[in-house]
Design a protein that fits this description.
The complex is a heterodimer of chains A (309) and B (483).
Chain A lengths: L2 H33 L8 H7 L3 H8 L4 H10 L7 H13 L7 H17 L6 H25 L4 H34 L7 H9 L3 H8 L5 H10 L7 H14 L4 H16 L7 H27 L4
Chain B lengths: L17 E3 L2 E2 L4 H8 L3 H18 L2 E3 L8 E3 L2 E9 H25 L4 H4 L5 H5 L21 E8 L5 E7 L6 H14 L1 H6 L8 H10 L11 E4 L8 H11 L2 E3 L4 E3 L5 E5 L2 E4 L2 E4 L22 H6 L4 E3 L10 H4 L2 H9 L11 E2 L3 H9 L4 E5 L9 E2 L5 H13 L4 E5 L5 E6 L2 E10 L1 E4 L3 E3 L4 E5 L13 E9 L5
Parallel strand pairs in B: 5-24, 8-9, 8-13, 13-14
Antiparallel strand pairs in B: 1-2, 3-4, 6-7, 6-21, 10-11, 11-12, 15-18, 16-17, 16-18, 19-20, 20-23, 21-22, 23-24
Helix pairs in contact in B: 2-6, 3-12
The chains are: A mainly alpha (309), B alpha+beta (483).
């Protein structure tokens, strides 16, 4: 399999997953804001910071509020991390690998992109917001299902699986980070919103029911974080994503270096969370995990996308 | 209302299916009889079914100037164009003869240059040709063959004579549409395939693979053959992907290939570098290797010419093969056939005036209103003048162009171009068409049975290029006795 084709598969899957997760992120933030007391001082600007896009936002919408933030994060093609930009990139990558994917998958990607272009600009309306974001999540899930159910699980599929799970693990750490950041803000105002926030986080990841079934405890921040990091069975938990990555990596040629990076990351995920932790430590740990995930990506790229002459 | 052939009038042109209103040609009788049993509405339904199939199969072509959304459905007419097998055998022999002679010519030009020394071809035409690549001199490709894939444009004049209009030896395209047209037609008229023998065309990809494999520098059962494409924005990208898939070859872009220190070509794969034996390239000569040709080219592979000259990789068509695909060289092809093969040409050329000769140039300038004037280095119907259809200003513009650079222009009489019944708003009307068969030459020669029929969908128009509003038809070669 050509390196270029492998790379496009990988990025195509990453961008679809990124669009889905960005939609989930905005959804949870929206819900969390409703639960936080106004005096907590947590507002939309924090979401821009979490996405690491403060400078670009200020250039494009200096002093903007809710409306501008949502436009920037969802429908602004000039923002490379917006949902629409991810959909556009996903489409471009799948377009050039159409011969390897089932035709329906290409059509689903195309439709998802067209849906985003049509609906995402309507997000400014708080009442439409949930519906539009859910539409993105649903169609992305549909594509994932199509690929897993109709595409041979050979090399090309493994690159899709790598891209999807790396992106998913990354976004789960960011969503945990959102909660940590919101709580830190709330702490400062001494108006801690109990555990409703963590419930919102679980719901944003479609993990509330699974948490109840498997953890069987009331919602408690420590347990939720552990569930989202360590659960080997929940598909959006970091540990599960890493197992998926490991399984696909082991089936590809030249897998030694990426596999080593993965095993190292699994160790960190399992060992670095202390019994007791506060939001600041959690924020630090999520930052570290994101850097480690970037290191895994670098190994994947070096092993398979950039063979040396 | 049933289809009535007595209302179909081909006018002054030669019609491929009927010799006059209500008079089908013998080889087309089975088809015309079948069509006459259908109503106009039924035909319309079958056309709609064909168009649906084309969208579902994703058969597209790409238009240059449309900016973002560049794929367009392939325009297709369901009424096949039928050729008698007895006539086809002559055309096939003529095409093989022509390609054989052209390959001997190219090999001679880049080596001994006997034809120049013997004064049978003007030396200055080679020396001033932009398609002559000095970098290729002294090289001998496998089997002495430079042009492995040739797409010839054939046209039929009003008296029924079939002429060769062009030999496309650089990166001829269209063969995938020939294959897809047949698949669609089988869905639209399955009953017609049951009752007569229509020569199959679907073995082309395997013949192409065999031709390419026969060029491999390494004697392997399964040499690594790749299709080199300029990428998704190229107008023929659909075809590049189609052929790669049909041959089981990798579809690569320039960046996928690398020439290592051993002067061999490798492709970058997830398992590391893999040696490439044969490159079926669909990029133009000057974009092949930025080290040799255009340093700004992003499409090519640095060092590719070095690897080719070292004999470590075969390139089809070979770099420099375009020297014989030039409208000036075209004028000499009958002489080239006589010189190398000592045979008379089986297929005639369209009479061609080369403006580089002063007396012919004078004639062209005086008769511009009656002639087709073509620049020698363009293809796809771009940049030409059709005298009878042109405005006074256009003719004056070409007069200036020809006077300024006579070497760059040739002129030909306007051919009537034959017609065939084409479905237009549920009615059958004559539309002009040409034919592009594809010939292969490696260790053996092969010609497709028929080829791609391109049809000008606009009434009276002679321009059949898909980039300029043309469509296509399936082409049937049928045994005469069975029709």
């Amino acid at each position: 399999m050509l390196s270029r084709v492998a790379e496009r598969m990988y990025w195509g899957a990453r961008y679809v997953e990124r669009a889905e997760n960005a939609a989930r992120l905005v959804r949870v933030y929206d819900a969390a804001l409703m639960d936080l007391p106004r005096e907590a001082g947590v507002g939309w600007p924090l979401l821009v910071d979490i996405c690491g896009a403060r400078r670009l936002f200020n250039e494009r919408f200096a002093g903007g509020g809710e409306r501008e933030t949502l436009r920037f994060l969802a429908a602004d093609a000039a923002n490379p991390s917006s949902i629409i930009a991810s959909l556009e990139n996903a489409r471009e990558n799948f377009r050039t690998t159409r011969d390897l994917c089932p035709t329906e998958a290409w059509r689903a990607v195309n439709e998802l992109y067209l849906y985003g272009r049509r609906e995402l600009p309507k997000m400014a309306s708080p009442r439409r917001r949930h519906e539009v974001l859910s539409g993105i999540v649903r169609q992305a899930q549909q594509l994932t299902g199509l690929l897993s159910g109709t595409m041979s699980h050979g090399d090309a599929y493994h690159f899709i699986r790598l891209g999807r799970n790396l992106e998913r693990a990354d976004m789960t750490t960011r969503i945990i980070d959102v909660a940590a950041a919101a709580l830190m803000g709330a702490h400062a105002a001494e108006a801690r919103p109990d555990n409703t926030l963590w419930m919102a986080v679980l719901k944003s990841l479609s993990g509330y029911q699974m948490y109840r079934q498997y953890v069987r405890r009331r919602i408690r921040d420590q347990d939720v974080v552990r569930f989202l990091l360590h659960d080997p069975l929940f598909p959006r938990a970091v540990a599960h994503c890493l197992l998926e990555l490991e399984a696909s990596t082991a089936l590809l040629p030249n897998h030694e270096a990426p596999l080593r990076a993965l095993l190292r990351l699994q160790r960190i995920v399992n060992e670095q969370l202390p019994e007791e932790f506060n939001e600041a430590l959690l924020h630090q740990l999520m930052d570290d995990l994101q850097l480690e995930l970037a290191a895994v990506h670098a190994q994947v790229a070096a092993a398979w996308f950039l063979p040396e002459a | 209302m049933k289809i009535s052939w007595s209302e179909y009038d081909p006018g002054g042109a030669w019609d491929e299916l009927l010799s006059g209103p209500g008079r089908p040609r013998p080889h087309a009788r089975r088809l015309t009889r079948h069509l006459a049993a259908l109503t106009a509405k039924q035909l319309g339904l079958r056309q709609a079914a064909a168009e649906r199939a084309i969208v579902e199969m994703g058969i597209t072509f790409t238009v240059y100037s449309e900016g973002q959304n560049i794929d367009r459905a392939w325009p297709f007419d369901i009424i096949p164009r039928v050729i008698a097998a007895s006539e086809w055998r002559g055309i096939e022999a003529g095409l093989k003869q022509r390609l054989t002679a052209l390959n001997l010519f190219i090999d001679d030009i880049y080596n001994e240059q006997r034809i120049l020394a013997d004064g049978r071809f003007p030396r200055e035409l080679i020396e001033t040709s932009s398609n002559f690549l000095r970098e290729c001199s002294g090289f001998r490709p496998a089997h002495g063959v430079w042009a492995h894939v040739c797409g010839s444009d054939l046209v039929r004049d009003a008296d029924g004579t079939v002429y060769v209009l062009e030999d496309n030896l650089r990166v001829p395209s269209g063969v995938s549409y020939m294959l897809e047209n047949r698949i669609v037609t089988k869905q639209v008229f399955p009953e017609l395939f049951a009752h007569q023998r229509i020569l199959p065309v679907d073995d082309y990809p395997s013949q192409l693979f065999d031709t390419l494999a026969s060029l491999s520098p390494r004697p392997l059962d399964y040499p690594e053959v790749v299709v080199l494409t300029p990428g998704i924005y190229n107008s023929a990208y659909f075809e590049h992907a189609y052929l790669a898939q049909a041959m089981g070859a990798e579809l690569v872009e320039g960046g996928d290939l690398v020439v290592a220190e051993d002067d061999c070509v490798y492709m970058r794969t997830i398992a590391g570098l893999e040696r490439v034996d044969v490159i079926y390239r669909r990029v133009n000569d000057t974009f092949l290797d930025p080290e040799v040709f255009r340093p700004d080219s992003m499409l090519g592979v640095p060092g590719l010419m070095r690897a080719w000259r070292a004999g470590n990789v075969a390139i089809a068509n070979a770099p420099g093969a375009g020297v014989a695909d030039d409208k000036l060289v075209y004028a000499f092809v009958p002489d080239i056939i006589r010189y190398y093969l000592d045979e008379e040409p089986i297929l005639p050329n369209v009479p061609t005036h080369a403006c580089v000769r002063p007396d012919e140039c004078r004639y062209v300038l005086e008769h511009m209103e009656e002639l087709v004037v073509k620049p020698v280095n363009e293809s796809g119907g771009y940049g030409m003048l059709i005298g009878p259809a042109a405005s006074r200003q256009e003719i004056e513009k070409f007069r200036r162009l020809v006077k300024r650079k006579p070497r760059n222009y040739v002129a030909q009489p306007v051919l009537q171009l034959s017609t065939a019944p084409t479905l237009v708003k549920n009615r059958l009307e004559p539309r002009h068409l040409d034919l592009r068969p594809f010939s292969l030459q490696g260790d053996r020669s092969a010609v497709t049975a028929g080829g791609l029929t391109r049809v000008a969908l606009v009434k009276g128009s002679l321009v059949v290029n898909s980039s300029q509003g043309g469509g296509s038809k399936d082409t049937w070669v049928v045994e005469d006795g069975e029709a």
